[in-house]
Records
---
Amino acid sequence: MATTSSVNEQPSAPAASGGSGLLVSLGPLSREALAVTLSNLAEAFPAQAVLVATPDPVSDTAVAPHLQLVPYTPPAPTTSSWLLSAADYLNTWKLLDGHHAGACLLLGPEAQSLGPAAVRALAEAVVAQHADLATPRYDLGPRDGLVNSAILYPVTRALFAVRSRYPLAVDLALSARMSERLAAVAQRHTASGANAALVWPVPEAAVASYSIAEVAAGPRALPPPGTIDLNSVLAQVAGSLFAEVDAKAAFWQRARLSYPPRNGSLAHTQPLAHANGSAEPPDVTAMLDSFRLAYANLHEIWALVLPPNSLLGLKKLSQLTSESFRMSDSLWARIVYDFILAYRLRALNRGHLLGALTPLYLAWVASHLLQTTPGAPDFIPPEKHIEAVATAFETDKPYLVSRWRWPDRFNP
Amino acid sequence: MGQQVSLALRESMHRALVKLASFLPGLLALLLALIALIIIGALLAYLARRILLALRFDERFARDRAPNVADWAPRHSPAELVARTIFWACVLAGLLIGVSAFDASLSASSQVSFLVIPYLTHWAGAILILLAGTVIARFLARSVLIGAVNLQLQYARFLSLGIKWLVLVLAAAMALDHIEIGGTIVDLAFGILFGGIVLTLALAIGLGSRELVSRSLERSAEARSSDARPSAVRPSGEPTSDETDAENPQRPRPTGTLRHF
């Protein structure tokens, strides 16, 4: 069920460095959600003693006998509590260390929607197959997790050479040493009071040459963001990823892909249930309006970030009709790479930079939706298009490396 | 007559040269203090940089602290930040010592300082106010422009320009007031201009944002009446999913909805 991809050619050492038990760490859940989650855990591990850390009060009679409950005090809720934050990783490591467990399963908000088979597969990837990090591959709808498909997955795959479809997944399985490493990173943030800071497990594992597994996890209800403002959430997540890319530049400039870039088919992964897209034509009018308005007003700000070639591409894009609106994968890859560079070079205020990315992202979403709707002249299944985008990012990686090293060199 | 004119000219030239000469020791003291402290600062910064690099300060700092501090450091090196802080602290100290020496030498000998020094400092202050105003105006104009575009306000550029000129007019009025030019005329003109810009912006926003405000109020009312948890991300006008399917993830959701996260 699990597919393992590691950055280095050499297989990593077995993960377990502490005890042999499994710890499952849960976040705050409602009474009903907790009951469903505990039932799923009991079904996933029918004959295995498992420690379940939960901040919610539970009566012992309602729990299967082989699940041992461990109460803990959760970190203060933050606006980003829909994702795993630095405080969560630190807390998990403390629990893992305190109970001498050898591996842990970190289940995020809405954990009750994760099926027992997925929970078991995640745990097995770390316990039985000795991976250090196991990430789930959710079976989401074609119009879900779009930021992940547009930015997080392609950037992580191209730069860190790891094919983890959900790099910022809310459920993870960690070995003891991986948990310790993430806790060390998280502690830097929590020490300065940034409990809500995001930690990126996949790049961390890649840099440490730890083995990474991906597990098909089936459908899952992803928790909604704590705010309804797309700009602020996108800025938070993209900004955190850009900072991670900046911090790990020494690694990803050397990292080589363990598979040829042009071979980015779905052979490595399992097909998804929603792979054929949605038959209902999308309403992209608002997104296109947003992009065209931004092109008319933000051109001079984009000119500080993007080279003339990309600006020309955007100009052509702004003149297209709704039906023929298509953003090429290579243009999108260049745009994201140039924004990463501008983030590093502080070409303009970082808040402004990330704000200026939103209309471009919406343009990509509109193009993606139009292209992946059955009946479109150039129809392509959503997952295949996302793979094509990721391949474009891989192909264009030398551009980022070159400009990262010589940012002042002439760039048409 | 000619002799008297010549005498008057010679005397005035003598007085001017004497006054100019009285400047020179102070000026020389200022320059000497500045140059000496720049050299000392460069030496101290060099030493600090070498010592910190030998102690692997950057690595230790990166291991123990959050990355935000290193972000602000030049070349992302906290050691470089410390070295530059030392250098500029020395330069500042040199400037302060030089100015006080210059002031002391002048005030002891002539009345020029009572007229020239305050005037010069006021001009320097006014230039600083203008510079700060320009920087703040540009920053705010960009913030407003990006925010307004992301809210899909058609008059985003107009709003941004309004904010920019509002801050620039304010900075210019403060600068003129600082150097005491114009008196009440500046106050009056500033009041009229500032009030005019604010009124124009208020009218533009009020007339142009009726739909936006009503949509926002409707959304707030809906959010209050429905479940307390926000469940979707949407820029204005964009279709999104307003429900979570936590209870049954297998249930098909309306395909026209979007979820960015």
Note: Chain B touches chain A through 47 residues (CB under 8 Å).
---
Amino acid sequence: MAGTSSRKSGSAGTPTPSSTETDLVKEAEATRASAGYHLIGKRTPLIDAALKVTGRAEYTDDIKRPGMLVGRLLKSVHPHARIRSIDVEEARRHPGVAAVLTGDRYPTPFGVLPMTHDETALAVGRVRFLGEHVAAVAAVDEETCERAFELIHVEYEPLPVYDDPKVSREPVPVKIHDRALRDTNLQKEVFQHFGDVPKALEGASQKVKLSGKYLGVSHGFTEPHCTIAEHTPDGRLTVWSATQVPHYLHRSLSEVLGMPMHRIRVVKPEVGGGFGGKSDPFPHEIACAALAIETGRPVKVLFDREDVFYLNHGRHPTQNDVTVGVDADGKFLAMDIDALIDGGAWSSFGVVTTYYNGVLAMGPYRFDNFRYHGARAYTNHPPSGAMRAHGGTNMRYTVESVVDEIAARMSFDPIELRLQNFLPPNFKTINEFRITSNSVRQCILAARDRSGWEEKYRKLPYGRGIGVACGFYISGSNSPIHFTPVFPQCTVHLKADMDAGVTIHCGAADIGQGSKTVLAQVVAEVLGIRMDRCRVAAVDSDTAPVDLGSYSSRVTFMMGNAAKAAAENLKVPLLQAASELLEVPPDRLEASEERIHVKERPSQGVPFHEALHKAMETKGALVASGAYSTKPLGGTFKGAKAGTAPAYSFSAYVAQVDVDPETGFVHVENVWAAFDCGRPLNPLAVEGQIEGSIHMGLGQLLSEGLSYRGARLMNPSLLDYKILTPMQMPKVECLLVGEDDPEGPFGAKEAGEGPLVAALPAVGNAIYDAIGVRLMDLPITPDKVLRALEEQRKKGGAVKPPAPTRPSKRTPTHGGR
Amino acid sequence: MNGAGGAAVATDAVRVVVNGRPRTLERMPERSLLQALRTELDLMGTKYGCGEGQCGACTVLMDGKAVHACQVSVKEVGGHDIVTVEGLARGDELNPAQQAFAELGAFQCGFCTPGMVVGTTALLQRTPSPSEAEVREALEGHLCRCCGYTKVLRAVQRASEISRERARRSA
């Protein structure tokens, strides 16, 4: 068999940039260093490192309250059924049981988006997926809860089960929700058309259409969902929960429990990963609170891993078709997309998902004609929801595969083809996204140079290959989910007291990404003090100002700007006090190295704490607030706000793979990940986001997928749901080449979600380079590789695709812009 | 069953040494060591992630060997020596694995980290200077969803260096 003997070399190593090339990464680093910040841009270990490596960081399940009961939720055994009756009397009487609740107690519907409230704390009259909660029990221990479950008698009347979104979009005899569109089970449908796609496609010299198929994916966070609630005799409810968005939970608790928000306190302890999977307000959080109210005792609800899989809210199972037409020179003319996504039983973020599957598809490329039809169907699968690079991942794989296929058919080098078609910086797209900073060119050139692309593309032996793909993602959603009453996207409060420490209150949720560290870096940078003076208070709704949440990759941009504004406001009285002490006007002073001193004469100054104490003489502790609001963006057509963001991240990844044609096993050897997050505030954390994103992306690409038989989830465990282990992780090189963004804090943009999207198609395109087959059905498990190779052999032999014949312009690392 | 609660079923007590101290586990001999550590001894550093020995968040040392505490029952640990993440540091001095993970940012949410540093400690006791391949293999039973292991692999090498530096200093 061709090529099998060449597979022995194993590690591919990391080529160094050739000496003739300019090193874009080093250049970008040098430019950033010239700004002279003392903390911003430095590799900064996370401020909670010592707590996390010693096991002392406190997650929700680590909290014990006096007299705490165990809360458990009874799961539906039917995917779709009417609940004829629930008899809980025997369970209620069982010794050790403190309360049993059913859906009729708190039937108010809720949901993360104000326009699609279709969830309830416990099922009301109907179950819509296998695993939906039908009753909640609070008891002295787990065993008693389990015994109580046996004593709860639920009579179900099965209903037709919908497990295929293609069926859901046709007329159906039973609607899963009354709010489904027309006589179908569609939850949301989007049509958009800019320019004239049919005409542009007609005039195209090449049209490529590919269809992608994607299984659902679990977030796979290691900390299962957990909530503790306590209702105290003063009429207040406190809820500790593993949540990404304490504020949404706060609102939903109030709406469903009928309790004013000011009597509810939501606390977010450490969160063991979220990735979007803890961003909805969840039924179990409300049910836990309801049990606490009912019993008057603290109640903890902790999910087991199987419960996590059944609650799901992971990436949507998707089928999409992408057609791109190009002219004879390789200029992209039009893109036409059709997407059908399986939303499962609830809406969740589905309206946003339906838009994002289309509106984010063009970036980072320029198109003048674009058409999108997207539909999200209700089915009786566990609900799909928001997951890292929400709506931007599955579609990106198909788009980048199409671009690779165009290059192959038209005999272009795929990097040259992309370079011809990138959006420029400071540009308005056909769907009215405002593009500002954009270093996608630097990204692809850096990835090309570092990977040794020109020596490898189409030149590696059969079975080994290299591929490229680009990415694009929002740096925070410009339109908040809750827009009435009008609030800033993020607010930060600071307090500096006589101990010369600065307490930072912020509602943004650090879920591991390191936002607490960014807060401390930003505040300490502005005040010119050491980071250890900054204390970041845990998110507690009693003290933290409202933040609209850790989702849509918005925290660094929005929280960072709010923190910077707050610190600048705190600095004003400090400079004034120092001015009085030094008898120098405040505008001639600056704060650095723990002092406030004369700008041009650093020796003339006062220590930070002396200026602070002087300022406190009449005011007491200094307090300051800073806020960030987005400017109005986007067009006026229906859905114009979807995908608008104050900035966008860009990326270009090159991946190198080794495919074993005997076993079908794909080994990813290297990923060169060039990313434009503007100025990285903490490069250590940015690298962590990129490396983690690649791990997550390759999991979806190669091994992860929620597999259903009918409506039954077949792999709700980490035994059968295969997350990549250290054995499968490639070597990753992060190339941070972004230029400062004009509106980001210190020039920063997002790095939390965007780093995922290019990882999957870069590897998919590398597989094509290795063995000449294009695999569009994810995950790409060895059996699918073998089947594709078998078909390829039937057609005439296993070979690498031909090398490009068009004379490469060999775009120089500089110029050509 | 995930160990959120505490059963009040008193049966045979199990004697065990945990982090150098003799302890008696009096309740729930049928339950896992993970549950006993968390509910009876308040050692919250050992985490429940999956309960089926797949994620490694509950890794502890049993007679120096890394085990998944969710897969060991209380009655199996009688007479054995258990070390949890809380038993790794000497006073304020982090053990080499902890120090290396903290310095190099080899964690994000931190939920898998106690298990990872315990697993790393076990590896370095067995193989003081592991190759990258040995590290990958030794940590195969640990899932990290945040950091993609890249910094973990480096941190284990760094922990190995720190161990050698400390040995030289104390020699």
Note: Chain B touches chain A through 63 residues (CB under 8 Å).
